[in-house]
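Checked the freezer inventory, then went back to the computational side. Two predictions to log before the end of the day. The first one is the construct we discussed on Monday; recording sequence and tokens without edits.
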Amino acid sequence: MKEVIKIVLTNWINVVSIFIAIYVAGFISAIIKDKFTFSEALFGTTYSVVGYGSVFWIGFFVVIALLDVLLFSFNREPRYTNYKLALEWIIISSPFVYWLIKYNQWIFLVAILAFLIGQYLRRRVMFQS
């Protein structure tokens, strides 16, 4: 179980990668598309990602931790890690693909791609001692 907790704790990589990507994309969108001033874009993006996005962050933490526990509790062999991480990415990204298509909000594509990159980076850290 100790190894599974170590795997769950590697989720900080996903959180950082998604947070940075969404923050940068939101800030650029606020400046270019919405014509905000620098300070308005800074405050608005921070509020959107942290405040409004808190529902997302809580759900993301819970779902990815549960999937890690379920997928890595039974078999922790490194040869299956890529499949497990891909399955996590597909399960968690599915609603965002739907919202991307339905609402035509490109920030969801940014989140999906950032999560994919985070999973790739996380794979490299998972089994280092």
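The second is the one RB wanted added to the comparison set:
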Amino acid sequence: MRNIMEAEFKKIFFLRFSKVYLLFTIGISLLIGFIFTVTTNVTQGVAITDLSVMEVVSANMLGVDLASILLIIFTALTISREFTAETIYTSLAAVPNRKRLFLGKYITFLLLSIVVSILMVALIYLTSQIILMANNMSLASLAEADIRQFVFGVLLMPVFYCLLSVAATILFKSSGGGITFPIVILAIPALLNMFPDTIQKVLLPLLPQSAIHSLSGTVGAESFETSGVFISISILLLWLVITSVIAILSFQKRDF
């Protein structure tokens, strides 16, 4: 497995495109979060000094939403390249066990997404502190439970959707499927808001975005998205396990 992962990392970082894209993802996320935060008087009609510390941090962390989408695209393009260039045959010749090859890719992108997510959230958090300091406001402290919970929940988002993209790309054998599937899952909660409460009450708690919102503490007690920590983590794991199992079964049976 270690050799497979080393090979996967080399495939990713051999191309200059990958390094530039990941740096761009982090940079644009910082910029977007910063713009959202310093323009609250325009976007929300409220001066930044009238916001709470949590609201400032939350506005800045909106950049992570964009980063999650960009990471989905990067993952899908990177994995699908093997199918379009037909280098998948070389990979399968080196690793005939398709389940093992899938797990190698999965763990590789898990580690990559964790590093990118931690780096990105840390930089955005630092930017939030600078913005708060510049406006003579209290600094955000990870000693406070609500801020610590929020940061943890935000960290999970890029990691989860990156892994969902890994499974979707291999399942559909294309970057289109690898991009479309996780983005549709990401967008469903917004669409469900147009439906009656009876439908929202049943479907919203089952969606990964609701679980992430619950874990980050950004939902109210009356929201249909609200669920306990154990249930939220279980929902995220179930989504990953089910999509991965389907992708592995498809990968094992398919002739390329």
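For RB: The radius of gyration is 20 Å. The mean pLDDT is 87. Let me know if you want it refolded.
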